[in-house]
Design goal:
Layout lengths: L10 H18 L5 E2 L8 H12 L18 H11 L1 E5 L10 H14 L3 E2 L1 E3 L6 H10 L4 E5 H4 L9 H10 L3 E4 L12 H10 L5 E3 L7 H10 L3 E4 L6 H4 L9 H6 L4 E2 L11 H9 L5 H16 L3
Helix pairs in contact: 1-12, 4-5, 5-7
């Protein structure tokens, strides 16, 4: 397995060269740039705690060695994405306890105001008042929500979220949900709770993060059953993930057939390898340039009305 996890002592020259390679990738497909639906921006003190958790090889990351490749200040991280030619990205953030979500949504709204290429992102948690602050976020212009079932340790079909899901389905606001059991299982991860949620809200625009790793085939099945279910590519097919939760080759034809509902996601900046690697591994699947164009730009441009 190639080791993409060791960052150079002086990353600036390597990052400049990487940006050139990323641009060559999408230009070679005839695209105007990339749209990345799974990037993380949060209040700095929250993000530092997330990085500390990765540094400590915490149980939610399966005890894996996970160096952060793009550990930098906020301004540098946004500049890096723009240097890569990322036209639109998200500020995926999530609460791990009650009382956090509304505060995080306030920060995310301000971040979106000062970062026009960020798709205004919001989050939620099963708690009193969730419907009210979800409605506030939608009315304030939120374009995508993040739900982290593993970190939040909640059932996505929790009755306390019922009205919030209904509101988001009606407003047609997509939700990126970490609901698979990778890199480590949570109390409510896996396809079964999501299947219960979709049975009640079949028009919910659900984007399954990490393609549901490692329950890839089960989540492909949900996408085949529900027209509004999509999958993001975050960390899937990379040498890092293939080492412990590989995508089954037998499922590639099903993935190819769902080419209009697969979206580029990367987990930037919290990845243990270069951004370019995620693009290279999608290309080496051999699913064709039309599939790559759809995944890396066109599907998200249509979903989020990105000009």
């Amino acid at each position: 397995m190639n080791d993409h996890r060791t960052a150079p002592a002086d990353p600036a020259p390597a990052r400049s060269a990487e940006a050139d390679e990323v641009r060559r990738f999408w230009a070679g497909l005839g695209l105007p740039g990339l749209i990345d639906v799974h990037t993380h921006f949060m209040p700095e003190r929250v993000l530092r705690k997330v990085w500390d958790y990765f540094d400590a090889n915490g149980p939610l990351i399966g005890g894996l060695e996970w160096p952060i490749t793009y550990r930098a200040e906020e301004a540098e991280r946004t500049a890096l994405l723009r240097g890569f030619g990322v036209l639109a990205f998200t500020s995926m953030l999530y609460p791990h306890k009650p009382g956090m979500a509304r505060w995080l949504n306030g920060w995310a709204a301000e971040f979106a105001r000062r970062t026009p290429d960020c798709l205004h992102t919001a989050t939620l948690y099963p708690e009193p008042g969730v419907e009210a602050y979800v409605r506030e976020a939608v009315e304030a212009g939120a374009r995508v929500f993040k739900s982290h079932v593993q970190v939040g340790a909640y059932d996505p079909a929790d009755e306390r979220l019922e009205q919030a899901w209904g509101l988001l389905a009606e407003a047609r606001v997509p939700v990126v949900m970490h609901c698979g059991s990778g890199p480590a299982p949570g109390r409510h991860t896996g396809p079964e709770p999501v299947a219960r949620l979709l049975a009640r809200h079949p028009r919910l625009r659900l984007i399954v993060a990490h393609m549901g790793m490692p329950e890839y085939e089960e989540f492909l099945g949900l996408a085949e059953r529900y027209d509004e279910v999509r999958l993001d590519t975050t960390m899937v097919f990379t040498d890092f993930s293939e080492g412990f939760m590989p995508f089954p080759d037998r499922a590639l034809p099903r993935l190819a057939a769902l080419g209009d509902r697969v979206l580029l996601g990367t987990d930037f900046p919290n990845i243990p390898y270069p951004y370019l690697h995620q693009l290279q591994v999608l290309e080496r699947l051999g699913l064709g340039e039309d599939w790559l164009r759809a995944v890396c730009h066109d599907n998200a441009a249509k979903l989020f009305s990105v000009a």
